[in-house]
Write a structure and sequence with these properties.
This is FeS assembly protein SufB. The protein has about 475 residues and is α/β, with parallel strands linked by helices. It has helices at about 35-45, 50-65, 100-110, 110-120, 135-140, 150-155, 155-165, 175-185, 415-425, 430-445, 450-460; strands at about 25, 85, 120-125, 130-135, 145-150, 190-195, 205-210, 215, 220-225, 230-235, 245, 250-255, 260-270, 275, 280-285, 290-295, 300-305, 305-310, 315-325, 330-340, 345-355, 360-365, 375-385, 390-400, 405-415. The strands form 3 sheets. Strands 5, 6, 8, 9, 11, 12, 14, 15, 17, 18, 20, 22 and 24 form a 13-stranded mixed beta sheet that branches. Strands 4-3-7-10-13-16-19-21-23-25 form a 10-stranded mixed beta sheet. Strand 3 and strand 4 (about 130-135) form a beta hairpin.
């Protein structure tokens, strides 16, 4: 008789762990030098100001200390990381024109089907470059611009706007890996939504890192003008290697007066990935940003999307879920700055840990002296599926205004035997009961995701369970 398992089975990553050999790909040397930065800039034929920005960012990177307050990143050696890998294709506007290996990758991930079903535009990045980009004519006729950021950089009208906005929300001096991003960034998206324009269907970018021992450093810049509305979806994945890979992208979101942006992300990197991503939004008067975030992969993760509520009655919501399995240490959460009167923030997170995985929720809420009549609520719930996992909550509240309402609540628990017994008494098997509890725990987040990502998330946490757990 086969032995019963006593722990939750790991996530089945067969959908993501396929990879292709690098045939005719181009790589820069591993490491970080001014010569490498200059080569990346030269390949892209960038304006002089961008090269100057890169070189100054590199100086900042070498000057700054490596973070030591979170999970250890001692296994990440930048001398062994290749910062630029160009796939064997230029950017295309139809899937069939891509090389078979690249096309097959995105076919297996379901991106072309999603575009045909309900997306207004898609950008797909493979390693360091966008390989596919398309936007529906109806969206373009509305004046919406959706392109690769490097492509926009070569258009005089948009170069001026990019020069004005690029890495102003996330300056290279912010932290060491923001400086790294400023030096070697490559690929990413540029979105401009004109005043009063409301797009009924989402735009999506998907980032795939196929290369071994490499980094991906895409930059996403989105500008939603006054009274406009946009839903943007971001997906990420990579196959597993036995060496470290790095993701250090950046996302900058500018939301105008009365505008709204919903930003949905599923990050499903492999377990050799160091995910050191930085995301930040700024909302003007009456503007709002919604973050929907799922973190399932990577060996180590540092991820804290930040909302700067700069205008009166601006607001943000953050809904997130993190799954930390064996060999994973995921430090996630969010940051909010209440910088104007009558602003509001609502944060709800869920985390699941198993197999010795470590999940840490870290939040920062700052109420400035200008935050009169503002409010923020933080709720985080953690579920441990065995007795070898760990979950921590580290909230920070910096309140500098007397007339605000700030609250935080946290719960950490395990699946109770009484709950399992109750469900089993109703004719449900033990395995089904445990699965129902986990899925129910995650449901408030999954229902906020777009359909394809809700299905993906449910597949990721559909755990086979047999026998007792802790």
């Amino acid at each position: 008789m086969p032995k019963k398992r006593t722990e939750v089975a790991d996530i089945d990553r067969s959908m993501y762990d396929f990879r292709y050999e690098e045939k005719d790909f181009e790589r820069v040397d591993a490491g970080l030098t001014p010569e490498i930065v200059e080569e990346i800039s030269s390949r892209k034929d960038e304006p002089q100001w961008m090269l100057d920005f890169r070189l100054k960012s590199l100086e900042t990177y070498h000057r700054m200390a490596t973070p030591d307050w979170g999970p250890s990143i001692a296994g990440l050696d930048m001398d062994n990381i290749v910062t630029y890998v160009k796939p064997n294709t230029d950017q295309k506007s139809d899937w069939e024109s891509l090389p078979d290996d690249v096309k097959n990758t995105f076919d297996r991930l379901g991106i072309p089907q999603a575009e045909r079903a309900y997306l207004a535009g898609v950008g797909a990045q493979y390693d360091s470059e966008l390989v596919y980009h398309s936007v529906q004519e109806s969206a373009a006729q509305m004046g919406i611009v959706y392109s690769g950021i490097e492509e926009a950089l070569h258009e005089p009208e948009w170069e001026k706007l990019i020069h004005e906005k690029f890495m102003t929300l996330i300056p290279p001096t912010d932290h060491k890996f923001a400086a790294l991003h400023g030096a070697v960034w490559s690929g990413g998206s540029f979105v401009y939504v004109p005043k009063g324009t409301r797009l009924d269907f989402p735009l999506q970018s998907y980032f795939r890192l196929n290369a071994k021992g490499a980094g991906q450093f895409e930059h996403t810049l989105i500008i939603v003008e006054d009274d406009a509305d946009l839903h943007f979806i971001e997906g990420c994945s990579a196959p597993k290697y036995n060496v470290a890979n790095l993701h250090a992208g950046a996302v900058e979101l500018f939301i105008g007066k009365g505008a709204h942006l919903r930003y949905s992300t599923i990050e499903n990197w492999s377990k050799n990935m160091y995910n050191l991503n930085t995301k930040r939004a700024r909302c003007d008067e009456g503007g709002s940003v919604e973050w929907i975030s799922g973190s399932f992969g990577s060996h180590v993760g540092y991820l804290y999307p930040m909302s700067i509520l700069a205008g009166r009655k601006s607001r943000c919501t953050f809904t997130g879920i993190t799954f930390a399995g064996q060999g994973q240490n995921l430090d996630t959460g969010c940051k909010v700055v209440l910088a104007a009167p009558e602003t509001s923030a609502a944060i709800e997170t869920k985390s699941i840990s198993k197999g010795g995985g470590v999940s840490t929720f870290r939040s920062s809420v700052v109420a400035t002296p200008n935050a009169t009549d503002s409010a923020a609520s933080v709720s985080c719930q953690s579920l441990m599926l065995d007795d070898v996992s760990r979950s921590d909550t580290i909230p920070a509240m910096d309140v500098r205004c007397k007339k605000v309402d700030i609250g935080h609540e946290a719960t950490i628990g395990r699946i109770g035997d009484d709950t399992i017994f109750y469900l089993m008494s109703r004719g449900i098997s033990e395995e089904e009961a445990r699965t129902m509890i986990v899925n129910g725990f995650a449901d408030p987040v999954s229902k906020e995701l777009p359909l394809e990502y809700a299905v993906e998330m449910n597949n990721l946490i559909k755990l086979e369970m047999e026998g007792a757990i802790g």
